[in-house]
Amino acid sequence: MDNPNKPVSSPGFEGAEKLLEIWFQPAATQVAGERKGLFQVARQTWVEMLKLVRCEVIGYISSGELDAYLLSESSMFVGEHSLVLKTCGTTTPLLALEKLLEIAKNIGLTEVDQFFYSRKSFMFPEFQKFPHTGWDDEVKFIEKEGHNFVNGSAYLIGKTNGSHWYCYIWDLGRTLKKETRQPEKRPWSSRDYTLEVLMCGLDPENSCIFSREHPKDANGRLKVTNALQALYDHVQIDDFMFDPCGYSCNGISGHHYFDVHVTPESHCSFASFETNLPPTEKMPYTKLVSDVIAIFKPSSFTVTLFAEKDEFDDEVTEHPMPPSFLGGKDGLRRQDRINYEFDHYDLAFTHYTTK
Amino acid sequence: MDNPNKPVSSPGFEGAEKLLEIWFQPAATQVAGERKGLFQVARQTWVEMLKLVRCEVIGYISSGELDAYLLSESSMFVGEHSLVLKTCGTTTPLLALEKLLEIAKNIGLTEVDQFFYSRKSFMFPEFQKFPHTGWDDEVKFIEKEGHNFVNGSAYLIGKTNGSHWYCYIWDLGRTLKKETRQPEKRPWSSRDYTLEVLMCGLDPENSCIFSREHPKDANGRLKVTNALQALYDHVQIDDFMFDPCGYSCNGISGHHYFDVHVTPESHCSFASFETNLPPTEKMPYTKLVSDVIAIFKPSSFTVTLFAEKDEFDDEVTEHPMPPSFLGGKDGLRRQDRINYEFDHYDLAFTHYTTK
Question: Model-level pTM?
Answer without folding.
Answer: 0.90
